[in-house]
Amino acid sequence: MTVLLVLLCLIVGSLELYAGKRSKDQADGFVKRVEELRQQVDRQSGVLVTVGEQLKAEMFKVQRDVLPAMENRVRQNTGQIEQLRTLMQQAEAYLRTQAQRMQDLEKQKITLAALRRKLSDIESSMEALPRPDAAATGQNVETALARISALERNGDQIQEFQRDLTRTLEDVEDVVSDLLGFTSTELDQAVATSLTGRRAPSVAVGGRMWSRDPRLMDVLAEMYEQCVRANHLTIRFRAVEGTDGAEDGHLRYFLTGRSPEELVGDFAALLVSIGRNDVAATGRRSTTEARALQGMLRTFAESNGAIAQIGPLIALRTREELLCAVLSHAQVMDFENNRLFADSLASAVWMRRLPGHQVRDLTAWAAQPPEV
Q1: Fold designation for 68-196
Q2: What is the rounded distance in angstroms from the CA atom of residue 214 to the CA atom of residue 253?
Q3: Strands 306-310 and 359-361
Q4: What is the per-residue pLDDT for 282?
Q5: DSSP letters for 34-86
Q6: Spatial contact of 364 and 321, defined as CB atoms under 8 Å apart
Q7: How many CB atoms lie within 10 A of CB 362?
């Protein structure tokens, strides 16, 4: 019995020792796990602090650089829009006044025509009466008829003035629409820049178009703009340079969408393919661009003088020849600074002095019938 009790005590002591050791191991594992979690939390906190500092720095940069510039641009554009709106209101008020005057003049013209017929009838009836003062009366009638004719001529002049005013107002509306569209795009890009932190692409290249014959100005401008769009460029704004309006001035274009370096290579390849009549071999996309450029050049060939610029591309039509050139950046600056676009003859002489691989004489090509 004593031996049995001793064995039971040993068994109970062994179980207590095993349970104590197991409890200690579990406590040590729990403490180790807690320490690992604390270290992981510390690392995540450090990362979050670093990201927070970076975001704070970016927000400070946006507040310091982007937002003030955007606010200044918004204020400037708002002022310009208000000025244009005031000008439009004044033009509309003036147009309404002129329209009312035109209605009054039409009524006066009708009245004067009736009076003229009445005076003619009176003159006819008075010629049959032998009166001593018939000559004086006839002279008064002639004076009245002359005054009526003068009033009718003035009415015709006012009508012509009204038509000129209407055309001017339509031109102003077109400019205001273009400016509002440009301002809206600029504001959208400014908002996108402030939200994303990436600055939107600015105006990349410039363009010009001029024709000696004002009757072809609209047709040439349409072909020019088709060529611009076919070469994946966007017309951001169009303005008229000159004091005599769009018919006698130069059209100035501001284009974006592609860099000048891309355009130099593409335009050079297009001119080579056009000169060789090998447009289809350049691929489907290049074929579209070449067809548009061909259409513009053939339209230029029908005029007696025109100049077009699309970034590095210069197309010149004189009375005798059709020249095209692809310029480098420095040459474009030289072309602009010397204002060669205002003198087609000086432009032709300047282009003839360029290296031969940059200039293409397409006079003979333009004289050939186009391929169907």
Answers
A1: Helix Hairpins (1.10.287)
A2: 18
A3: unpaired
A4: 46
A5: HHHHHHHHHHHHHHHHHHHHHHHHHHHHIIIIIHHHHHHHHHHHHHHHHHHHH
A6: no
A7: 22
Question: Which tokens in the block code for residue 183?
Answer: 């301002």
Q: Which two tokens stand for residue 370?
A: 């186009």
Q: Express each pLDDT in 18-75 by its tens digit.
A: 777 788 888 888 888 888 888 888 888 888 888 888 888 888 887 787 778 778 877 8
Residue range 147-167: mean pLDDT, rounded: 67
Which DSSP state fits 276? T
H helical segments located in the chain = 2-61, 67-127, 134-196, 217-230, 260-275, 284-301, 329-337, 344-352, 363-367
Cβ pair 227, 298 in contact under 8 A: no
pLDDT tops 80 at residue 161: no
Residues 218-236 pLDDT 10s: 889 999 999 999 998 988 8
Question: 280: which DSSP letter?
Answer: G
Residue 270 amino acid letter:
L
Residues 6+ apart with CB under 8 A from 51: none
Contact between residue 348 and residue 318 where contact means Cβ atoms under 8 Å apart:
yes
With tokens 């474009």, the residue in question is: 332
* Domain assignments of the chain as residue spans, ordered by start: 68-196, 205-367
Q: Kindly report whether the global pTM for this prediction surpasses the value 0.70.
A: no
